[in-house]
Write a structure and sequence with these properties.
five-stranded mixed β-sheet; 24 helices; 28 strands; 39% helix; 24% strand; globular; disordered N terminus; disordered C terminus; binds adenosine monophosphate
């Protein structure tokens, strides 16, 4: 258990929080400037009271004003350093940027608050047409990248899950978040969110805070996920945090189960839950899947489906919702051999990693080579590392910015006790760093839990080429003698004898041989009984074994598809001035792979001949499997381009003659001229990334006419 008080103490010798980050040095500079200002204020008062000449006083006041200006400048830098961080150095604040993205997404129906005409429900959203297309593209690529390329077994299990399954997995007892209640109104809040908001708000608004105090708040933020209920409660009390809406006092934190409960069937006798994750469906099918895979390890099963979590106070738009799509992989592997045959394909990758030691010591994520992280023991094993590498490739291929993607290792308390190692792929958005994929080595926990509850052995076997001889301890209680001696308690004594480990058994054997009897403690009877020589035989025998039976470990990458998509929206969004320079136009720079529509087709002017050509091109694109949309509205060409840019459509075909047309690329706005019957092939090649736009530019004449431009 982590002792928070000791870790954040500024005097702790092990504390690393005195690193002079920009923010820290600005805080110090501000404090120093304030004391200089105070001192010069005092000096001016003294000059005045001592009747100093006016010119001298004026000079001192001028110097004081200059100091105040310097102070304002430091304050502004500090504000920018803490909260005003701009997106990609664009000069736009995070809030303004988010507002622009969200407005475009809602206006273009990428998503819609669900049940909007009834004022909606927090944490529930619909995807509109472009949102559905993006999601389906992301899932198609997920299937390609993982299910097909890694030869996984895909399953599709029900959302409604009987209680026994989720009791076995531990969700009924432990799938909770810590909640606090407004003591007067009963309003509920997530305890860690309140503490997080408090610390962030203090850091952003209290510019005069000492660097040490700032380091303390930052450390609380860094270890937030690691805090127990008691530690959270203690911090909430220490900082005097109250209910944000009413300022009323708050209760102590207590666990709230996030699962939606339901009844299966009309009688009410069978309790069920909407699944909070898809993984359990895979675990309970392990035996059949293992058989399907020819009783061979390793293998992975995968599932895409809805998950339901009754979040305490959903916020952050699409990032924390109550129903969402998960894509999960359960990779089953021999616990004694977690090497991966394709490890060398990812071991040279380098990207931002954030190991737990760096987090605990207040550092930031650094670029690390994956292979090195494994050889240094930072990442527990090759298979876990392999999936980290594959997740990195998946996310960056979708269009996630490498500089805003990091892999963060779980802190000790954040990780379940049975887990060997866990890493989250976190993506930076205007909301900060967001966990989008969890990659965990869960050891044998899940299969063991379902074996215990169901009585069905979820195990694997390793058949030996040659049987091997092993020395085995054989404990054989003589039931007749034990029955006579212990009557009703005989069963408990037999079980206790059989449960002895090797050392206990050999000690008892030795005592029986020398003394003929021995005192033996039976825990379940809570007493000691006398065992005589005729009541048990203990021996070591050589036995032949043909196989090894074991419970596989599972490595689980779990993808929150909605979170990935939202972050992708932010990473792909940018604004550029219109040609006239009078407005900002929004663009989604989606790679073709995820773009909701690959191509729009429109006649330059409303004209039957051009419309016919547009229809013909659209048909040829559809036949080639390229999603496309015709726009035959009479609006100006510039407006139509702006519309397709807002949907992130990479290519636009403009029909301005019946023999050849122009193709415009979204980001460069370059246009080429192509014969009508070649259009589909060109768009197919470039949108399926068989060639680059730069290659196409070499082959086709650039179209420079201003007529088709904005
Ligand atoms: P977990 O099982 O809690 O590790 O969650 C697996 C993944 O699901 C996370 O990495 C998130 O991407 C996603 N996720 C979890 N909770 C939510 C939520 N309330 N809304 C949207 N996505 C979520």
């Amino acid at each position: 258990m982590i002792n928070i008080g000791a870790q954040i103490s500024p005097n702790s010798p092990s504390s690393h929080y005195h690193q002079t980050t920009t923010e820290d040095s600005l805080r110090r500079a501000l404090a120093a400037k304030q004391s200089t200002i105070d001192a010069s204020g005092t000096a001016i008062r003294q000059l005045k009271s001592s009747g100093a000449p006016k010119s001298e006083i004026d000079e001192a006041v001028k110097a004081l004003n200059a100091l105040k200006l310097e102070k304002t400048s430091i304050e502004n830098q500090l504000k920018a350093s803490i909260s005003g961080q701009t997106i990609n150095g664009s000069g736009i604040s995070r809030d303004e940027f988010r507002q622009a993205v969200v407005n475009t997404l809602e206006r273009r129906l990428f998503y819609i608050p669900a049940f909007k005409i009834y004022r909606g429900v927090a944490g529930l959203y619909d995807y509109g047409p472009p949102g559905c297309a993006v999601k389906s593209n992301v899932l198609a690529f997920w299937r390609q990248h993982f299910v097909l390329e890694e030869d996984m077994l895909e399953v599709d299990c029900p959302c409604v899950t009987p209680e026994v399954v989720l009791k076995a997995s531990g969700h009924v007892e432990k799938f909770t978040d810590l909640m606090v209640k407004d003591e007067k109104t009963g309003n509920c809040y997530r305890a860690d969110h309140l503490l997080k908001d408090f610390c962030k708000d203090k850091l952003e608004s209290d510019l005069t805070m000492s660097a040490d105090k700032a380091a303390e708040f930052k450390h609380v933020l860094a270890v937030l996920d690691d805090l127990s209920g008691e530690q959270l409660g203690a911090k909430i009390k220490e900082y005097g945090i109250v209910a944000p809406d009413t300022k009323n006092p708050l209760s102590d934190p207590y666990p709230f189960n996030l699962m939606f409960q339901t009844q299966i069937g009309p009688s009410g006798a069978s309790t069920g839950y909407m699944r909070p994750e898809t993984a359990q469906g895979i675990f309970v099918n392990f035996r059949d899947l293992y058989y399907y895979n020819g009783n061979k390890l390793p293998f992975a099963a995968a599932q895409i489906g809805q998950a339901f979590r009754n979040e305490i106070s959903p916020r952050q738009g699409l990032l924390r919702v109550r129903e969402f799509t998960l894509a999960e992989i359960e990779h089953f592997v021999d616990p004694d051999d977690k090497s991966h045959p394709k490890y060398s394909e990812v071991s040279d990758l380098e990207f931002l990693m954030f190991p737990r030691d760096e987090q605990m010591s207040g550092q930031s994520a650094k670029k690390l080579c994956l292979g090195e992280a494994v050889s240094k023991g930072i990442v527990n094993n090759q298979t876990l590392a392999y999936f980290i590498g594959r997740v990195y490739q998946f996310l960056t291929r979708l269009g996630i910015d490498k500089k805003r993607l990091r892999f963060r290792q779980h802190l000790p308390n954040e990780m379940a006790h049975y887990a060997a190692d866990c890493w989250d792929a976190e993506i930076e958005s205007s909301y900060g760093w967001i966990e989008c994929v969890g990659i965990a080595d869960r050891s044998a926990y899940d299969l063991r839990a379902h074996t215990d509850k169901s009585g069905v052995a979820l195990v694997a076997q390793e058949k030996f080429a040659e049987p091997i001889e092993v020395e085995k301890l054989v404990i054989a209680p003589v039931k007749k003698e034990l029955g006579l001696a212990f009557k009703g308690s005989q069963k408990m004594v037999v079980e206790a004898l059989e449960a002895m480990n090797e050392k206990e058994a050999m000690d008892i054997k030795a005592a029986l041989e020398t003394k003929g009897e021995v005192e033996f403690e039976v825990c379940t009877l809570q007493k000691t009984v006398t065992i005589k020589k005729n009541m048990v035989t203990i021996a070591k025998e050589i036995k032949k074994e043909h196989q090894r039976v074991f419970t596989p470990s599972v490595i689980e990458p779990s993808f929150g598809i909605g979170r990935i998509i939202y972050c992708l929206y932010e990473h792909c969004f940018y604004m550029r001035p219109s040609k006239a320079g009078d407005e900002q136009l929004n663009v989604f720079r989606f790679p073709s792979l995820v773009a909701p529509i690959k191509c729009t087709v429109f006649p330059l002017v409303q004209n039957q001949k051009y419309e016919e050509v547009a229809k013909q091109i659209s048909r040829s694109l559809t036949a080639a499997g390229i999603s496309n949309k015709k726009d035959i509205t009479g609006t100006s060409i510039g407006k139509r381009y702006a519309r397709t840019d807002e949907l992130g459509v990479p290519y636009a075909v403009t029909v301005d003659s019946t023999s050849s047309v122009t193709i415009r690329e979204r980001d460069s706005k370059d246009q080429i001229r192509v014969k009508v019957d070649e259009v589909a092939a060109v768009i197919k090649d470039v949108s399926e990334e068989r060639c680059k736009w730069a290659d196409i530019l070499q082959k086709y004449p650039l179209h420079t006419s201003a007529s088709a431009d904005e």
